[in-house]
Amino acid sequence: MKSIKSICSNCKQCCKQYNITLLPKEAEKIRKKLNLTEKTFVQQYCDLSLQFFPSFESENYFVINKELISEKIKKKLIKKSNAEYFFVLPSISLKKTSYCVFLKNGLCEIHEVKPEQCSLFPFISLKKQTNFKESYSFCELLIQGFKPEKEFKEKSKQHYENIKNCFNKIKEKGFNSVWKILPEKGNVFFEDKKISEITKKDFLDLIEF
């Protein structure tokens, strides 16, 4: 199977479009590549990330009533949705301004150890019928006509299993069991669109489900 690395057209659009969340093992690989302590890596290159999605259920561990959300964030959310409950995903992400913190002079500084979310892009959907070209019309790889092979979908499936396992651990033991060191601040997203910033204190208060 060809690797994504070998066929990527290097247009760098995905480095500019997305907020890249990390799994602990991915963060560890990057940290070691940069020869940094965990604290230095997290503080220098990472942000807190809190993603909200409307929910029609109320019993899920990661679902909270909107009345338990701080006023600052709630005001932003109710402009986007009238849902009573929200599914909340807390995570750590790579810092990003208009592009990823590791995109320097047009090159990815951590290319050999970049997160799976980057390595698999754009073939990162579990849906059997996915129009990748329509979903990611900016991707030069797709514009050139490259079609996903079965192995990409299998790797994507395994990646989602790893994400699932990570959140199961958070559910069982708490966020700090997965991430021992946290950035001082981060961002709040509604369906992948940034709506607010957040401090570490507010982040921790909110995810104590």
Describe the structure.
Helix content is 40%, strand content 20%. Strands 1, 2, 3, 4, 7 and 8 form a 6-stranded mixed β-sheet that branches. The protein is globular and about 50 Å long.
Gyration radius (Cα, Å) is 18 Å
How widely separated are the two ends?
Answer: 43 Å
Strand elements, count? 8
Counted by DSSP, the helix tally is: 11
Largest sheet: 6 strands, mixed
SSE map:
Layout: H1 4-7, H2 13-17, E1 21-22, H3 24-34, H4 38-45, E2 46-55, E3 63-65, H5 71-78, E4 85-94, E5 103-104, E6 107-108, H6 116-120, H7 132-135, H8 140-143, H9 150-173, H10 175-178, E7 185-190, E8 193-199, H11 200-206
Parallel strand pairs: 2-7
Antiparallel strand pairs: 1-4, 2-4, 3-4, 5-6, 7-8
Question: Which key phrases capture this entry?
Answer:
two-stranded antiparallel sheet; 11 helices; six-stranded mixed sheet; globular; single chain; alpha+beta
Summarize the structure.
Helices cover 40% and strands 20% of the residues. The protein is built from eleven helices and eight strands.
